[in-house]
Amino acid sequence: MNPTANPERGDRADGGEKSADRLFLESIGTALGLEPEATDRVRFDRPDCLPSAFPVTALASASIGAAGLAVSELVAAVAKAPLVTVDRRLAALWFGMSIRLVGWTLPSPWDPIAGDYPGDDGWIRLHTNAPRHRAAALGVLGSAAERPAVAQAVSRWSAEALEQAVVDAGGCAAAMRTVPEWEASPQGRAVSAEPLIALADAGSAASAWRPTADRPLARLKVLDLTRVLAGPVATRFLAGYGADVLRIDPPDWSEPAIEPEVTLGKRCARLDLRQAADRARFERLLGEADLFVHGYRPEALDALGFSETVRRALNPGLIDVRLDAYGWTGPWRNRRGFDSLVQMSTGIAAAGMAWRGAAKPVPLPVQALDHATGYLMAAAAVRGLTRRLAEGRATSAKLSLARTAALLVALRGDPPEAAARTPTDADYVAGVEATDWGPAERALPPVAVAGAPLVWIRPACRLGSAAADWGG
Predict the structure, then answer these.
(1) Which of 81, 142, 155, 421 has the fewest CB within 10 Å, making it most exposed?
(2) Looking at the whole model, is its pTM more than 0.90?
(3) To which CATH superfamily is domain 14-106+191-327+365-449 assigned?
């Protein structure tokens, strides 16, 4: 990237250089196996940017644009490939919260003791939103569940030693590293060697499903086994183009702070995969699905008896898209992680701290790794459909938050000059969405595929509110 160019000023940066969103899109297009000229069908409108040390809005625009372009390529199987337009302002909005509540509130997404703490040699972030992760951190620290007590206990630890101890106890933590430190680490080197989107041939795939030009994913069955936040973003996008998305959660799982944001367009059911009857039902659903999107750690589904070999035996034509936090190779391939932790590990929070001249870690203004990876997952899924139509082959795809972070760091340019504008009424769809919690307004779609509008038929719903079967 031209270091003198403003990477988020328009479709082209100063001096005729390509803008950051165009550079991101071309990198993503290559990872998806698209012809180079395909990205010319994407147009970026309305410059806007989120304040950050990194071109976050460019990543938002490009990842959403790539998902839209994948839809355009699918439509090309039955009609002329349509143009794709991305609204940068709305892309930035959707990377935050797309929903605006009318007369009700949401709880905080963060546990009271989650967050950044100084150790005796650097910063560490504890992620304690899940009860078991909270218990693991408190057990290692021997601390009361109060922020001052946790801070005092953390201060006696080396950040990396505490990170390892919490991880070994089954918790989630990340010491803050710089970009060079991460890139020199064994896991950083492993992630850098991985493709942004690891697409692989998974064998012959017969399917009677076909797209339509105006509702490209209508009648497509998507089995969603994902949780906060990237996977649900991916399946929300697929639902917007007509897919029948069935999300499955265990009986005791909830995401009260984000369910209204990510369940748009879906039906949500519960199954306990450790119970014989629920396993049998899940097997039937998996056998009938076109797409399976999941965010379990690499060996977690194997432990439940649903390894890739088993999944293929149940459904040879399945398009299988999976997400991991820290990559699929290297010593951390099975490590639990979330967007905020990956930002600490990969140097993003440290770079933000230096950029702002702050005394503590400065993350991205939104959970951009989650959102961007979600749209890349959606793009990979739709590319799998296109390949199944054209070649009669099934596809698997693997993506990770850490590899998306590497893309953002690699294409980092000068920080943008202008801050994003406050959302206005004009940014939202006219009318009210009747969610399970109360009335709400939803932001306008951030991408337009000509002739195939992004429209969600079902409002946001509570987890477990539907039966575990395919809709009519």
Answers:
(1) 142
(2) yes
(3) Crotonobetainyl-coa:carnitine coa-transferase; domain 1 (3.40.50.10540)
